[in-house]
């Protein structure tokens, strides 16, 4: 399936997954405008997942509604489901991330990640 300008797509960006619309083709990338969040980004250091020692533990926000991101074409595919409303999709993605973290064995990573997600949640939904 060929993706064209305006196509609704599923796009993986860093550790998050989004629904977006293709705005431009840029060589090996698409410029994608974010419409919804399917999976909230993981917390912490992208290069050292789930580690807390000797790394900078990042608070990772989801891309904002209508934010545009350059996403490799290999991380973009057609999206055929109904596009959820952004704030509802963000709330669902945050709840899923919190649930997944709470299911993990207790660790320093889990503690820091949950604290980040709770801070983000307060900021997102104030």
Question: How confident overall, as mean pLDDT?
Answer: 92
Query: Quick one: CATH superfamily?
Result: Kinase associated protein B domain
Sheet with most strands: strand arrangement: 4-3-2-1-5
N- to C-terminal separation? Answer: 40 Å
What percentage of residues falls in helices of 4 or more residues?
A: 25-40%
Protein name: Kinase
Keywords: Kinase, Transferase
InterPro entries: KapB, KapB_sf
GO molecular function, one term: kinase activity
Descriptive labels:
KapB_sf, 28% helix, 126 residues, alpha+beta, kinase, 5-stranded antiparallel sheet, 2 helices
How would you characterize the overall build of this protein?
This protein is of the alpha+beta class. The chain has a single domain (8-124), classed as SH3 type barrels (Roll). The chain has helices at 86-103, 108-124; strands at residues 8-13, 16-26, 29-39, 68-72, 76-78. A hairpin with a 2-residue loop joins strand 2 and strand 3. Helix 1 (86-103) packs antiparallel against helix 2 (108-124). Keywords: Kinase, Transferase.
Topology, element by element:
Elements: E1 8-13, E2 16-26, E3 29-39, E4 68-72, E5 76-78, H1 86-103, H2 108-124
Antiparallel strand pairs: 1-2, 1-5, 2-3, 3-4
Helix pairs in contact: 1-2
């Amino acid at each position: 399936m060929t993706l064209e300008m305006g196509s609704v797509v599923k796009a993986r960006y860093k550790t998050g997954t989004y629904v977006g619309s293709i705005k431009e083709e840029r060589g090996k990338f698409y410029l994608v405008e974010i419409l919804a969040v399917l999976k909230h980004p993981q917390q912490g250091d992208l290069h050292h997942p789930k580690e807390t020692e000797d790394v900078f533990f990042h608070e990772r926000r989801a891309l904002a509604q209508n934010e545009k991101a350059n996403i490799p074409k290999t991380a973009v595919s057609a999206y055929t489901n109904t596009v959820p409303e952004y704030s509802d999709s963000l709330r669902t993605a945050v709840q899923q991330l919190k649930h997944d973290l709470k299911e993990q064995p207790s660790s320093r990573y889990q503690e820091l990640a949950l604290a980040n997600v709770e801070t983000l949640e307060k900021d997102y939904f104030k």
